Amino acid sequence: MIILIIIGMSLVTMLPRVLPAFIVEKMQFRPWLNRWLGAIPYAALGALIFPGILSVNPEEPHLGIFGGLVAVVLAFAGLNVVLVVIGAIVTVFILSL
Amino acid sequence: MNSILMIRKGLLTGLPIMLGYLPVAITYGVLAKQAGMSLTELTLMSVLVFAGASQFMAVNMIAVGTGALEIIIATFVLNFRHFVMSLSFMNQLRDFSLKWKVPLSMGLTDESFAVSALNPKEAKMEKGAFFYGTIIVIAYLSWIFGSFLGGLLGDVIPEKLSQSMGIALYAMFIGLLVPSIKRERRVAVIALFAMLINALCIQLGMSTGWAIVAGTIIGGMSGIHLLKEDRR
Fold first, then answer.
1. A50 touching B (Cβ < 8 Å)
2. Which is more confident, B156 or B20?
3. In chain A, at which end, N or C, are there fewer CB atoms within 10 A of the end residue's CB?
4. B52 assigned to some structural domain
5. Where does A27-80 have alpha helices with state H?
6. Domain of residue A12, residue span
7. Mean pLDDT of chain A
8. Pick from B135, B167, B199: which residue ends a domain?
């Protein structure tokens, strides 16, 4: 039964991922559509960050906010992404002690 | 020679994903085991599905005895955002042959997309496919390995620490977004707009999956206008 669920999940996740490879192969896009698609990464990042970050610790949403703020500051300071990630983890860890 | 350079670059760029994935994947492995899945099943799910959020959701649903069809439909809804992301990513990789596009698209996750899309230079370079391929392989292997480890050993990371590591992927998203904002302020407008739409949709009672899709599509729409002047 679980195998059936896994195969079904696999198909419905693979299809939306792969379909665009063929769409792009077959079609040329107008400039406005290219700009739209070009903005998708930034929009996706925005939508992935907030409000999801509040649920890092659902009982204490401020932990996510503080961790996020530290990440913003470190990233603005020009640190590598790995260091930004470590800085945020350490912040949340210390605050939750 | 060139491809080795690209692989090395991909390794460095993909490192944050590994850091973010391992604790999340271990947690998934632990929960899946507790929900009654065998080590083979839970690892196989990571191999064949490779989508964090929906795997967590499926484990919860399996634990409470939800039917297969319902789980599969919920997975489709939650992962539909990957269609939008993949369309953007594949458009970026337009010059690659289909032979590369298909496997690269199959490895697309929120995280591999974010990292790849914000490193667009390599799409125009010779052997650039090795760069994106490496990022995706690291992400994939970290996810599978972490799941297996979680299922095998149980909670290997102390609870306080693993909870704190929940911030890792968000911090990575921020760490990717901020440099783009520093280069181009209008990027911040697009991202903030997307956040707002997402939050609004959730307030209106939409599911997380659809709210992210709406935030991404409508937020991205602001780029049609905002990114116009970039062309000249």
1. yes
2. B20
3. C
4. yes
5. 31-49, 61-76
6. 1-49
7. 95
8. B167
